[in-house]
Write a structure and sequence with these properties.
The protein is an alpha+beta fold and 480 residues long. It is built from 16 helices and 20 strands. α5 runs antiparallel to α6 and α12 packs across α13.
């Protein structure tokens, strides 16, 4: 896989043709939240159960809450004082949120999560208030329908036409709420990956369905034994992390041990201080850069290696961790492949594109209906991490050939819009260094100064600002 070719680090958003959804889609989101406003004292503990639905995810507010009046005052109402189902996160919304956040946090510690969720909504984004727990139904297409509505009210076309996809696939989604997949009783568990059970193996540790280093704090697989969790898949998961580590560090995202840093041969990213620092060791003509104000360059980091086939294995491992166990028999050859040193000469392509930013990984599995007359893959997976979306199929389903026919690709294009993706071959088993394409833009009127490396490292940030108050940046001479 070549990150330059895929342009995974070029952030862009592509709009789609507007699709008009029927007004009836809104009816099942009818608000009953106004009833508890009318029937309860707003200054006492009040039981609430409603959902906030945004582009980046949904939050269910459920239970007894104090100072409800302060909570409700954040949201917009009609002329009669009833809460509006469609809300706008405008300047007034965030001003109210700032005013009441201290009171809410002091009165109820659970409000911290609610306030943090609301603060992440983008300015002027429209979102929904809905009665009940929107996240309760995980087996139907409700999550996608909710997303479609939220996208529509923000004048963004949701990339999946549920009407077409729903005729062929059942859709299952995970990642926006905490979930433990599989058997809850440890004594009854059978590992999905080695087919062993207690007492031969143990299930003492929580196994993350998607690596915690990728930001996953919500999805767990009950049916992965401790041996598979800690040893069997450690290599492929580490290589997947290697391939994405620089991106996670640049976005200052947290892994298992806090915000991720990079310490490589050609690039160092240090997020220990507030502003963070990036050191790139590359031959750049600084004079040309300052004159042109814009320069592209690529960098290779040999200390972060991965094989494309191990990335494919890891993607499949994530999906096996969450899929309904009734499908595991059909995936037995897939599971043997991803859990062994065995390599395949050819694999189906994987499609990659950039998307909106996700703090928590989201995964959806499309399971083909039994009566679907189609050459499409039996299972299609869509994984979102940060601003990257992977679309791929399980290989070796029912022990069949891995490759997709041209007719299958044509149908996939019709359903998922493959032209919006980059098609990538992950068949290679050669260990490759991470390749990155950077773009440096110099703002107008920016001033640079060349200083020695020793001076740069000796002075603190504040000392540099004091000594060079009007300087926009530094060119560090490593030889001085």
């Amino acid at each position: 896989m070549n990150f330059k070719q895929c342009q995974l680090y070029s952030v862009y958003y592509r709009c789609y043709n507007q699709y008009v959804y029927e007004q009836s889609l809104y009816t099942w989101l009818s608000l009953e939240i106004n009833s508890f406003m009318e029937n309860n004292n707003l200054n006492n503990m009040v039981k609430v159960n409603f959902s906030i639905c945004t582009i980046n995810g949904n939050l269910n507010v459920n239970g007894l809450f104090n100072v409800l009046k302060g909570l409700i005052s954040i949201f917009q109402c009609d002329d009669k004082g009833h809460l509006l189902m469609i809300q706008t996160a405008d300047d007034v919304f965030f001003q109210k949120l700032h005013i009441v956040s201290g009171e809410l946090k002091a009165a109820d510690r659970r409000s911290y999560g609610l306030i943090k969720f609301l603060e992440k909504i983008k300015i002027n984004e429209k979102f929904l208030l809905a009665s009940g727990n929107i996240n309760a139904d995980r087996s139907l297409n409700s999550i996608v329908k909710i997303k479609q509505i939220v996208y529509q009210i923000n004048n963004i076309q949701y990339p999946i036409d549920l009407g077409k996809v729903g005729d062929i696939y059942n859709i299952y989604c995970w990642g926006d709420v905490k979930a433990y997949i599989g058997e809850g009783n440890k004594q009854k568990r059978v590992c999905r990956f080695c087919d062993k059970k207690t007492p031969t193996v143990t299930f003492n540790h929580n196994a993350h369905a998607i690596s915690v280093s990728l930001g996953n704090k919500l999805l767990f697989c009950n049916e992965e034994c401790d041996d598979c969790n800690h040893e069997r898949f450690s290599e492929i998961e580490q290589e997947f992390i290697n391939a994405h580590l620089i991106l996670y560090s640049l976005f200052r995202k947290k892994g298992r041990n806090g915000i991720l840093n990079v310490s490589g041969k050609n690039i160092n990213i240090d997020n220990k201080n507030t502003n963070g620092s990036i050191e790139i060791k590359n031959d750049i003509d600084i004079n040309t850069l300052i004159k042109s104000k814009n320069q592209n360059f690529k960098i290779q980091e040999p200390l972060l290696k991965y094989s494309p086939q191990n990335l494919y294995k890891c993607l499949c491992k994530f999906a096996v961790s969450v899929i309904d166990k009734k499908h595991l028999k059909r995936l037995s050859e897939t599971i043997r492949w991803l859990g062994s040193d065995c390599t395949k000469t050819t694999l189906p392509p994987i499609w990659v594109r950039t998307c909106e930013m996700h703090d928590q990984p989201l995964i959806g599995i499309f399971v083909k209906k039994e009566n679907a007359n189609s050459t499409l893959p039996e299972f299609v997976i869509q994984l979102n991490i940060l601003n990257i979306q992977y679309l791929y199929a399980f290989p070796f389903v029912d022990d069949n050939e891995a490759m997709l026919s041209e007719s299958s690709k044509s149908e996939l294009e019709n359903l998922f819009g493959l032209s919006m993706y980059f098609e990538v071959d992950f068949s290679s088993n050669i260990k490759l260094p991470v390749n990155l394409l950077f773009n440096i833009e110099i703002p107008e009127n920016a001033e640079f100064i060349t200083i020695s490396k020793s001076e740069f490292e000796t002075l603190s940030d504040k000392e540099r600002e004091t000594k060079y108050p009007n300087i926009s940046g530094f060119c560090i001479n490593n030889n001085a």
